[in-house]
Design brief:
- Helix content is about 45%, strand content about 15%.
- By secondary structure, the protein is of the alpha+beta class.
- The chain has one domain.
- The chain has a six-stranded antiparallel sheet.
- It is globular, with a radius of gyration of 15 Å.
- The model has no long low-confidence stretch (mean pLDDT about 90).
Length: about 180
């Protein structure tokens, strides 16, 4: 079985007392936290209690702003992939699913990924939220603004790794409504 990052949406953030009442499945990605997941939790990023594991290793963020950032980068990447039907299908599937599963917040579950490093999971998530995610957001914003062509070209060349996640209403960890 692959270790995965899991992305959900919810109308409230998880807290010490409870998990959100309605959790919608967005995406899971094997062996990594992909660029797409980082961008979706890139606006209003905060570390929250996990809905799956005990340590505080979840990350929540603003849904609308994170989805808009991802859509903007997908448009920029797509400007160099106009003839790539597989990329076009990926974008269509991703954006349709985001429209269908929208809520107030994204919630990223990192437990399986951060446990692979051998480091303290909570410290890994703090670094992810304070360094890795803001760096990804800054790179994407610059690329969208036309000021980061080399980075954009590298993302375009390996778009499947960054955007080719599994989007579904049911993930390995799903929550009853």
């Amino acid at each position: 079985m692959a270790n995965r990052s899991y992305l959900y949406s919810a109308d409230s953030m998880p807290n010490e007392a409870e998990i959100p009442k309605r959790i919608r499945c967005i995406s899971e990605h094997n062996w990594d936290i992909p660029l797409a997941h980082k961008l979706m939790v890139g606006r209003g990023t905060t570390v929250v209690p996990s809905m799956i594991w005990n340590p505080p290793i979840g990350i929540a963020a603003d849904y609308a702003d994170g989805a808009a950032l991802l859509r903007g980068l997908l448009r920029a990447v797509g400007k160099g992939l106009e003839d790539d039907a597989e990329f076009a299908e990926c974008v269509a599937t991703t954006t349709a699913h985001l429209d269908k599963q929208q809520a107030k917040y994204f919630v990223l579950e990192t437990g399986e990924i951060v446990s692979m490093t051998g480091e303290d999971p909570a410290a890994s998530v703090l670094r992810l939220a304070s360094e890795d995610i803001p760096d990804a957001v800054a790179q994407a914003e610059a690329a969208i603004a036309g000021q980061n062509d080399d980075w954009l070209a590298s993302v375009r060349a390996d778009w499947q790794r960054h955007f080719g996640s599994f989007y579904s209403e049911a993930l390995y960890f799903s929550f009853p409504n």
